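Q: I'm writing a short explainer about Aldose 1-epimerase for a general audience and would like to include a description of its predicted shape. Could you first generate the structure from this sequence?
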Amino acid sequence: MNVPRTHFILGVTLSSVIVAVTGITMTSPAHAESPSVTVNGMPSVTLSRKPTPGATKPEFTSVTVLPSRALMLQQVTAYFPGKGEINVLASPSLEESARMLNEMDTPNGDLGYRLGAAFLFPYPNRIRGKLSADGKTITTEWRDKIINLPANSIGKLTGAERHAMHGLILKTPVTDLKVTHTPDGGTISGVIHGGDFNGHWLSKTDLVIRITLSGNNLDASIVAHNVGNEDEPVGIGWHPYFNLPSGDRTQVRLHIPGSELAKVDNYDNVFPTGQLVPVAGTAYDFRAPDGKALGDQFLDDNWSHLTRTAGVVVVKVIDPAAKYGVRIEGVSPEIKTIQAYAPPTQKFIAIEDQFNFGDPFGKEWDKMDTGMVTLHPGQSTQWHVRLGLFIP
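A: Of course. Here's the predicted structure. Afterward I'll give you a sentence or two in plain language.
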């Protein structure tokens, strides 16, 4: 039987940590003009702009990022005519986010992917492997080479399997931080000289992360460069929680242009079985142009065989009651799957554009291409997603 999963980190339920630490819901108002707040010794950075006078269509107004956390997006705000400013991301306030990350987080930074929009590298999603005797790491293989990863996640049910989750940069600060302000927004960029990520990866990697704000769009990109001497597999993604402004989750509509779904063992482990099944005629078919209502359906699933429009994978979150819509555009051709996480009891939906399937090195895939990009020394790859707004 499928059971809604809640991740445990070091034996603590993450959802309970958020409530206990913040004391607020995930849709608390953001204040784009608030002073910067320090997270892990580095101040937050906000780009902001004023809506066009007399604007008749929605516009982005701000983005706040955390340089100490690989430039993760803490909040994005937008102006909707007749409604004012709306939070695009479901996230605690900047002050509560800082308190949560400074005081309650794990050494791996796992609370970072429970708010805002964290970037994930060199693997989004789950990786299974042989658990070490002390329960702290797992080992897996790529091209007969051993990869040793933090075993930073586990489900809550008896018999749940500890595994690696969401990459190695959740708590990594950027260097070479550059902030450019323009009348229409601006750009924030930073660099991560990751090396081999403390021995957890096969080569050495530099990342360039860039976020650009304008009235019409918000762009986020990561360029990964293999600066080492070995081949390496690379998966890139993010974990954004999109706000549902009306609070009525049942009538929110979701559009995902994916024709196949990856079957999982259950919604606690959420491990892929290696089977891809057609969505046609099932509750997981969200391909209609105006989407399908979420109702009370639980989602923690991965769609593939994505249809591209003008070369872009377009996912839409539509909140008819709020007359609100956001487009999530997967620009990079390397984006092969969409993971969506939507618990019925929450007022958010996570839409995760990523290169790869879950457990990409797993034997269950039987040598299928699981979406990881192989970078030879000197090669690069890019992940790029663009957000847009509309009134449905």
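A: For your explainer, you could say: Residues 8-390 form a domain with the Beta-galactosidase; Chain A, domain 5 fold (CATH 2.70.98.10).
Q: Perfect, that's easy to follow.
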